[in-house]
Structures are given as structure tokens and as C-alpha cells.
Amino acid sequence: AQRVTQPEKLLSVFKGAPVELKCNYSYSGSPELFWYVQYSRQRLQLLLRHISRESIKGFTADLNKGETSFHLKKPFAQEEDSAMYYCALSHSGGYQKVTFGTGTKLQVIP
Amino acid sequence: GAGVSQSPSNKVTEKGKDVELRCDPISGHTALYWYRQSLGQGLEFLIYFQGNSAPDKSGLPSDRFSAERTGGSVSTLTIQRTQQEDSAVYLCASSSRARNEQFFGPGTRLTVL
Question: Hey, is the C-beta of A5 within 8 angstroms of any chain B C-beta?
Fold first, then answer.
């Protein structure tokens, strides 16, 4: 069974400090990993996906198959990054159910 | 084009009443998902549709919850004999065959008094 773990419910950092939101997964096949974000009073939306290998709003995430992790990182946090972040997993190359983690609330302190 | 829409946006009901929540996915999206987001909790998966069939209903909390999808488009989530613990935001999402990205609706906030 596929499982996504986000160990931190809340992460508070000061503006300008580095951010790392942790995500670990378990899946027997070849997964596709995502980060979704929900800003206050907005819809949940895709932030980035590992196959794109892109940086969105300064955030990056690297898939580490050895450690089964997909941590989200940003070198310098900004106040507008404050939001709820969800890590998600799906079977790659297919068309399968996506499993979400329980989410981490990022609070950037001015 | 329009995104995923949900109705009603807010629903207040009395304990024991039935409620019906509606989701209109993006046109052409064959996969549809229902989630529940409770205060202070994360995203709880309820059910997943592929076309009109539901390969995975494992997240439905009890037999008071049911969902259907007709014409490969609109879906309704029905909660019978609502309880106070059903109070939450119910989110719907859809995705296409080409990409696994889920597009979310604005949610329906359900309050059971």
C-alpha cells in the first residue's frame, strides 16, 4: 500500500531562514511525487512535481529513492510562503489514486 | 475554461438530516476524488472515481456516506443521518488521463448542529 508521512504538523521559521518540509513515503513500485499548497482562503493547488525537476516560487524538492524521501526546500523563507503544504504520491506512468500526507503548516515569522 | 466547482459553498444542517454535496469536475477529466478536511486535520481521502465506477471507496467513514457519479461528469456525495463529527470542509478534485495533477474545487463547508 502507498503511504505518505509528513512528520511535522507545524513548522515555524523566521523570514529569511531556510525551510525544509519533510516528506517520506512507502511504495513498492515507481512513484510520482508531488507537493501541493493551500494558501489562506485559496484552493489547494499543485506546487511542483518531481518529474518536472523545476523550482517554483524558490522551492525545490528532490526525490531520494534510497531514503524514500521528497523533502521540500527553500533557502530563504518569505512571509507569503506561509501556507499548508501537502506531499502526495501516485504510481508513475499510470492513472492511479493519489495519496496525500496529513500536511504541514508553514508559518513564516516576520 | 472553468475549474472544478462545488455546491453549495456552505451548508448548515441539523443532526440527523441528510445532505447532498455536488461536484462539477473540469470537462474531460475522467478521474474524480472526494476528500474531507477537518479543523486541525489534514486531507482525508474518501472515494475515487474512474469514469462512473469507484475503484476505491476505502475512505468512506461509514455506511452513512455514499457517492455516485453519472455520465462521467457530475458527482454527488450524500451523507445520511448527519452527525456533529461530520462537520468539515468537503473537497472535490479532478484529473485527466494525461497528467496526474489534481485540480481542486473550493470546497463545501458542512456544519452539523
Answer: no
| Model confidence band, residue A4 (pLDDT cutoffs 50, 70, 90) | very high
Query: Is A95–B97 a contact, with Cβ atoms under 8 angstroms apart?
Result: yes
pLDDT digits (tens, 9 = 90+) for A22-63: 999 998 878 889 999 999 999 999 999 888 878 889 999 988
Reported as a pLDDT band with limits 50, 70 and 90, residue A93 is low
Mean pLDDT for the stretch of residues A62-82: 94
Least CB–CB distance from B45: residue in A95, A99, A103: A99
Enumerate the residues of chain B whose CB falls inside 8 A of the CB of residue A32: 100
Peptide bond connecting B8 to the previous residue in cis, omega within 30 degrees of 0: yes
Which of chain B's residues have a Cβ under 8 Å away from the Cβ of A99?
45
Q: Quote the CA–CA distance of B16 and B18 in Å, as a whole number.
A: 7
The answer to whether A71 and A62 are in contact (CB under 8 A) is yes
- Taking CB atoms and an 8 Å cutoff, what residues of chain A touch B33? 97-98
Amino acid at B93: A
